[in-house]
Amino acid sequence: MKEINNVMVLFGGVSTEHAISCRSAHTIIKGLKAAGYNVIPVGITLEGEWLPFRLDLDKIREENWVELTKADLAQEEFPAISLKELSSPKAYLRYLCGGIDVDLVYLALHGINAEDGVIQGLLELCDIPYIGANLISSAISMDKAYTKLLIENSDIPQLDFVICHREDINNSIDSVIADVERLGYPVFLKPANGGSSVGTYKVNNAEELRQSLIEAAEFDHKVLAEPFYLAREVEIACLGNHKAKTAVAGEIVKSADVEYYDYKTKYISADGAKVQIPADIKAETMQKLQDYAKRIYSLLEINGLSRIDFFVSPDESEIYFNEINTLPGFTSISLFPVAWEKEGLELPQLLKEICELGLEAYEQQKRKIDV
């Protein structure tokens, strides 16, 4: 396997999780540099522009990083792009990296156009190794409806669910409401392709359900409806290609006035919730969660890393699979890096292992193209 020296870090993105990605990128870039890599950050704006980021790293977390970057690029002599650099996506990526051939792309992106196979497909077209799940596994894992349907064929427990399509919500919402109401109130709604709890709703009656379905459908063409299950939220950090090793489970401990772990609680409120690692659960519950996580990881054929989330009843008698995140957060409050730190894997070593897993997966997935 070749040596990894030059690592492009992609951050930002055309996604509702753009700001979270920038915060993750700050941690990841620092860690990759500490691991000894030559790091080349490239930001993707909300409008889809790709910009080389050469400012002080702390600027990456500022809301106006795009304006600051454009002003910086305007001041320096950035070489004009030639037809050669436009000859292929790979050539253009090399141009963005100042003519450097990158050995691997680290995806510090979250949400749509990041975890759904879109960016993975581009990088596979460019024949550039990248970290994390491949195109197919990313697409299936990002789509919570597809993931539920796949898990349904296993004996891994999950809550009942109804898949609502935007077209049906727009044209025959009464029928959709009737279908969802069989779950019983309260009901929890979330975009099938979404993350960081953006566009999620707890609804208690038909009137709220009608309005929330319309609003949730603005974030994706499918909405997943489930019973609102008041439980402990426990998460498992995984590493590996196809077969996972798992860190100790962590728990999202919500304050008494927080019903569920929404975007505000995750990223805005200072005291809405905290991460407890290890989770205060029985040894047998910990083992069962880790076993379920390993099975889900293999079932979805995940490469690199993921965080797999579960609901656990207060008395620990019930466990339900919730969802999987193939590019988990690396912010200062994110569970994934902290869980592995508890296992003795410091951030630079963790990122180095993720990069090496990415290159290993690239080598394993090569296909013959000449006939």
TrEMBL record:
Cofactors that this protein relies on: Mg(2+); Mn(2+)
Listed GO MF terms: ATP binding; D-alanine-D-alanine ligase activity; metal ion binding
Catalysed conversion reaction: 2 D-alanine + ATP = D-alanyl-D-alanine + ADP + phosphate + H(+)
Domain spans labelled ATP-grasp: 148-356
Keyword tags: ATP-binding, Cell shape, Cell wall biogenesis/degradation, Cytoplasm, Ligase, Magnesium, Manganese, Metal-binding, Nucleotide-binding, Peptidoglycan synthesis
Superkingdom to which the source organism belongs: Bacteria
Residues that bind ATP: 144, 188-190, 196-197, 226-233, 322-323
Pfam families: Dala_Dala_lig_C, Dala_Dala_lig_N
Entry keyword annotation includes Endoplasmic reticulum: no
Protein location: Cytoplasm
Cofactor note: Binds 2 magnesium or manganese ions per subunit.
Binding residue positions for Mg(2+) 2: E323, N325
Pathway in which the depicted protein is active: Glycan biosynthesis; Cell wall biogenesis; peptidoglycan biosynthesis
Active-site positions on this chain: E17, S196, S334
GO annotation, biological process: cell wall organization; peptidoglycan biosynthetic process; regulation of cell shape
InterPro entries reported for this sequence: ATP-grasp, ATP_grasp_subdomain_1, D-Ala_lig_Van_CS, D_ala_D_ala, Dala_Dala_lig_C, Dala_Dala_lig_N, PreATP-grasp_dom_sf
Binding-site residues for Mg(2+) 1, renumbered to this chain: D309, E323
EC number annotated for this UniProt entry: 6.3.2.4
Main localization (coarse): cytoplasm
GO CC terms of this entry: cytosol
Family according to the record: Belongs to the D-alanine--D-alanine ligase family.
PANTHER family: D-ALANINE--D-ALANINE LIGASE, D-ALANINE--D-ALANINE LIGASE A
Functional note: Cell wall formation.
Protein name per its UniProtKB record: D-alanine--D-alanine ligase
Organism in which the protein naturally occurs: Fastidiosipila sanguinis
Gene name in the database record: ddl
